[in-house]
Amino acid sequence: MQVHLAGSDTYKALIDPRIKAAVAVAPWGMNAGFWDASGLSGLRIPMFFIAGSDDDVSGYANGTKAIIDGSTSTDRYLLTFQYANHNAGAPIPAPAESWQPSEHLDFVPFDHYADAVWDNVRMNNITQHFVTAFLGQYLKNDGEMNVYLDLVENSGDGVHALEEDGTPKAEHTYWQGFPNRTAKGLSLMHKSKGE
After folding, report:
1. What value, to the nearest 5°, has the Cα angle with vertex 85 and ends 103 and 192?
2. What backbone phi and psi angles, to 5 degrees, belong to 188?
3. Pairing relation of β-strands 186-191 and 76-81?
4. Signed CA dihedral, 110, 113, 118, 120: sign only
5. Cα 6 from chain centroid?
6. Which residues are CB-contacts of 194 (< 8 A; sequence separation ≥ 6)?
């Protein structure tokens, strides 16, 4: 692990200047002491984190949220699936074989891919929506993507208010890209560099 030690010459040599932004789904390690303030301050590219509020593997308050709080040298987001566990938004579809019980496990392997609260397809669609907007904004410099990222933090606080012709009223704060009554159980935190 020494080669990956933050601040070391070997770590600095690993940094690829072609990487301009990154998405991390339920990153593990903060809850186990793998990150410190110095390491987190080394994150310099825009980051988009995805987590479940009930993640018992990576942790939430002491895990992914602590990473976003400490990464003050960059612009970053945290999409949270409320009540989801570690598999929140995981982009890996479950293989068909995972539905079959295994004599080597005390659970059906599908549980490794699934969440008890959220439907995987819905989580994947929501993840795709936000990652597309994030990468569009930070890799393509597409300013039109900001409407999908500059949102009231808690989706349930958004107000759906449209004129008869479908144009938004002044009080309309519903999450862009979500039809009425569909932006539920989510939050999107944004912290700018220096915050």
Report:
1. 145
2. -130, 105
3. antiparallel
4. negative
5. 23
6. 72
What pLDDT score was predicted for residue 116?
87
Q: What is the pLDDT of residues 34-43, one digit of tens each?
A: 899 988 988 9
Question: pLDDT tier at 112 (50, 70, 90 boundaries)?
Answer: confident
Amino acid (one-letter) located at 66: A
Contact call for residues 42 and 7 (beta carbons, < 8 A) = yes
**Residue 185 region, left (φ>0) first, then alpha (ψ -120 to 50), else beta?**
left
The pLDDT tens digits of the residues spanning 43-63 come to 999 999 999 999 999 999 999
Written as one string, the DSSP assignment of the chain is -GGG-TTSHHHHHH--TT---EEEES--SGGGT---HHHHHT--S-EEEEEETT-SSS-IIIIIHHHHHH-TTS-EEEEEETT--TTTT--PPPPGGGGS--TT-SS-GGGGT--SSS-HHHHHHHHHHHHHHHHHHHHS--GGGGGGTS--SBGGG----B-TTSPBPTT--PPTT--TT---SEEEEEE-TT-
pLDDT, one tens digit per residue, over 151-164 is 999 999 999 999 99
State both tokens at 74: 């960059």
- Domain containing 176: what range? 2-191
Distance (Å, whole) CA 158 – CA 181: 10
Number of domains the chain is built from:
1
